[in-house]
Design goal:
Number of domains: 2
Distance between the termini: 28 Å
Oligomer: single chain
Helix content: over 70%
Number of strands: 0
Radius of gyration: 23 Å
Structural class: mainly alpha
Largest sheet: none
Strand content: under 5%
Length: about 500
């Protein structure tokens, strides 16, 4: 199940990564640092509003659906869906109405047209969260991937037309609105089909939610939503570019563009390890109701393989930052090179977050997440105020990276001490060593050679070094070899032999 879902997530990730890269390069080069700074700032504010508007309802839907699906209590699942979707719809209407009021009375007239489209795009974004959570609870990522792929293509076409015809910010926000609306429509149709039989079975013999969802469960859901709301607000400080607000007020608007561009690149890198962790976390939620004693072991395995995938990508990008930035975005963004290097290096820690976070959510210990994120949010803001006035985007990257590392370490310390999770530190340490040495080796060609040559030479050279170090340090063992050999059986025939030889070389 995890491998099948990983395939769907990998497809979505690959297409999304390519589209995001193309859009990022085209928009950055066409708008320039100043306009890109304003656009990034407005879209960040819109994204923050949508995150606040979710109020933890999708997270609660996913958790409790998965738990009761694992128990086989389908009637309760139907009631949960009705309850959460109704509230999410009302909430989305309220937020769009408030956003429109803000645009009408606070945004200058020359920016109201495209800002209005950005606000309206909140509606489909918020509504699609419930069907997405329901599909994840059923471990059916197919129903989330196809709508995402369709909307990605639509948005890409819209951006291309915008750049050709010179529609600028109006075209960009309009394209986003259309793409999100299509995504919601397709996702909702697939969700209704998937849950048609479930709803029919669950609703038979019941007249309303009151008879389906016990009052005790409703209280748990409300508590979970409150905790998730607080947690989301804190996450936005630590994980979601809160530095943009401080950069806008304490620095030049170009620094917003430099930071936002570098942050987006590192986020795209993290999509690769999320291919595995997204699928595995869906199974982890279901296992709480079916096999609670295996949840800790599964979380530890998720951490190990997330690090295996993320470390060479993130730390390697830190070493190749100079060549990547100069090749993709040109000389006007050279000041973003150290920002990208720092954010990419610290992103390795962020890749280790989902496994620990999902473990605490599955164990109903969101209170711990709230406490950890409260402390790190205060730390993040303090570092922003200290470092941004003098360091601008570089200072913002340092502040964000340190805060994220502190949060990840605190979460895993609790998981180890209080939830009994056993982490194999030896293999993790060897992976970190291999990634850092690899990055050190690729810095020289990335800095001295022309960008295309540096990437063509540095990327395979770095990958070879990383794999060789994994073999020499024996960071992976026989059990890893058997798991990887089992996965390769699902690959196309032409890749079967190559994959097999690589695995046997890596783990002799």
């Amino acid at each position: 199940m995890i491998f099948r879902n990983s395939i769907w997530v990998a497809l979505d990730t690959g297409v999304g990564f390519a589209a995001a890269l193309i859009i990022s390069i085209a928009v950055a080069r066409a708008l320039g640092p100043v306009k890109l700074g304003y656009y990034s700032y407005v879209m960040w504010l819109t994204g923050i509003s949508g995150a606040i508007g979710n109020l933890g309802i999708p997270a609660a839907t996913r958790k409790y659906l998965a738990e009761f699906i694992g128990r086989g209590e389908l009637a309760v699942c139907s009631g949960i869906l009705k309850l959460t979707y109704r509230f999410q719809f009302l909430l989305s209407v309220l937020f769009v109405a408030c956003g429109f009021g803000v645009v009408l009375f606070m945004v200058p007239p020359q920016h109201q047209h495209w800002a209005t489209l950005a606000v309206f795009s909140l509606m489909p974004s918020m509504l699609m969260a419930i069907p997405s959570a329901a599909n994840l609870a059923m471990e059916d990522l197919f129903a989330n991937v196809w709508p995402s792929l369709i909307s990605t293509v639509i948005n890409l076409v819209g951006v291309v037309l915008t750049l050709i015809h010179g529609w600028e910010l109006l075209g960009l926000t309009g394209s986003l609105l259309v793409a999100r609306t299509v995504d919601l429509t397709v996702r909702y149709v697939l969700y209704r089909r998937r849950f048609g039989k479930l709803r029919g079975d669950a609703d038979r013999g019941h007249s309303g939610d009151a008879k389906v969802v016990p009052s005790e469960l409703k209280a748990r859901i409300r508590r979970f939503c409150v905790q998730s709301s607080v947690l989301k607000s804190l996450n936005m400080v630590v994980w979601d570019r809160s530095e943009i607000l401080f950069l806008k007020e304490l620095s030049d608007i170009r620094q917003v563009a430099f930071y936002s561009l570098s942050f987006n690149i590192t986020q795209q890198l993290l999509l690769v390890p999320q291919v595995f962790t997204s699928a595995a976390s869906a199974s982890l939620m279901v296992r709480v109701g079916r096999e609670p004693e295996g949840v800790g072991r599964m979380a530890a395995a998720m951490l190990r393989y997330a690090a295996l995938v993320a470390l060479p990508l993130t730390v390697g990008m830190a070493g190749m930052a100079s060549a990547v930035m100069r090749l993709l975005y040109g000389g006007q963004y050279e000041a973003a090179i150290p920002v990208l290097a720092l954010l990419a290096f610290f992103a390795a820690a962020k890749a280790c977050l989902p496994a620990g976070q999902q473990l605490l959510v599955a164990a109903d210990r969101q209170d711990v997440l709230v406490k950890v994120m409260s402390a790190t949010a205060v730390l993040n803001i303090a570092l922003d105020l200290l470092l941004i006035p003098k360091g601008a985007a570089v200072g913002a990257a340092v502040a964000n990276g340190i805060s994220q590392m502190v949060a990840v370490m605190a979460i895993w310390v609790f998981a180890i001490r209080r939830l009994g999770v056993a982490i194999e530190w030896g293999p993790l340490g060897k992976m970190v060593f291999a990634a850092i040495l690899m990055a050190a080796c690729v810095v020289i060609p990335a800095s001295l050679l022309p960008p295309p040559v540096a990437i063509l030479v540095g990327a395979p050279f770095g990958a070879a070094i990383f794999l060789m170090l994994l073999r020499q340090t024996r960071a992976l063992d026989y059990a890893d070899r058997q798991r990887l050999l089992a996965i390769k059986n699902a690959l196309p025939a032409r890749l079967y032999g190559v994959c097999s030889r690589v695995i046997r070389f890596l783990i002799p």
